[in-house]
Amino acid sequence: MNIAQTTELAALIATHSKHVIESPQPLPEEALRNYWHYSRKQLVHWMNELNRLDTQRILEKESEAELLQRDIAVQSIIEEIFITEILTRVWTAVLSATDQRRCVQYAEPVARGVLLSHLQARRRALISLVDGHLSPVRVGSLNKLRRRCERWTDFLLGQLAPQYAIDDFAFDSQRAYDLGQNSSSIAAEPLLLAGMRIGFSTFDFVNRSASQIQKQIISSVLASFPIDAFRQSGTFRSVSHLRIQRSADRESEPVGSSGYLLGEQIFSSIPSHHRFDMPHNDQDELK
Length: 287
Prior knowledge:
Layout: H1 5-15, H2 18-21, H3 29-59, H4 64-102, H5 108-130, H6 136-157, H7 173-181, H8 189-199, H9 208-222, H10 239-249, H11 260-268
Helix pairs in contact: 1-4, 1-8, 3-4, 3-5, 3-9, 4-5, 4-6, 5-11, 6-7
């Protein structure tokens, strides 16, 4: 799987999020644990690679060819961080909406912990953009990608905004709410996927080490969807038809809140120095 395909997955998840949000079944604990584990592993990979490349630049005298290769490697990691943040924010919003609907704190603490980790990587990427070591052309290209990812994130979150609080997950919550209130702005699934494919078509590279981690993250996300959300072909079923079926099959007992402990245990296991605050102001980032 190349890195751009994660944007298409984010679009599918946003479009079919109600399969998870409205499901009477509890979210699988194993899927949440795997999402946490592999997301943290991805963060470690990014930070280690950026630190290694920085150390290499400081300690070694590099030729022009070596400097070029280093800059390409740094750019590739920053692109991964920006592009995969779309999926991180969308999935966090979906899990938050699921907890809101069920009046529990189960999946949201896990998802927020992952988002905070991703924000650490984002902050590190932004530092690399302004430290003066990348060429102006690369900085301009990465900054353009950052803005594109932010717009697409808000567009996808607009599908949740009318019903659920997404302020903590959108880059511009007002933009997301405006999109959500205007139903005509939400594209049909084929058009939406085509738009994502075109918008990120130039980012079709595959980082082998990161790709394996990303596959595990994607698997954990898809494993959180109920079985009845999929047709035998593997495509998503109509949520309206599924509502009818679920209303007939739904048991009267409420969803248990024991899952609260999972979210709290995982989130509380994060060392205090690894708990990162949301940026106070996006003005700190490049415009």
